[in-house]
Write a structure and sequence with these properties.
Blueprint: E1 7-20, E2 23-35, H1 38-41, E3 46-61, E4 64-77, E5 82-94
Antiparallel strand pairs: 1-2, 2-3, 3-4, 4-5
Length: 96
Amino acid sequence: GNLEPIDGYGAFAAWRHLYSPKLRSNLFYSMAAYDNDKPLTGFAVTERVESLHANLIYSPLPKLDVGAEVIWGRRSLENDLEGDLRRFHTHVKYSF
């Protein structure tokens, strides 16, 4: 009948750099870690995650953004399995 919290912590940091009024970039890192009670949660739950994002955005017109982003991430499970990802995005955004 009692609930016990799972301890964990997380952090993130971000940096934005303006090269000019039309060109900017962002760098972002985040992570989280959990102290799971394995008899309750099992071994297939997340123990730690982290990701890193870097992008470059160009605004040729006041309401138009064109950009690209590179992402890296990693996830570790309590059973010592882990995986990572690498992704490349592009985008075009028009603000109404």
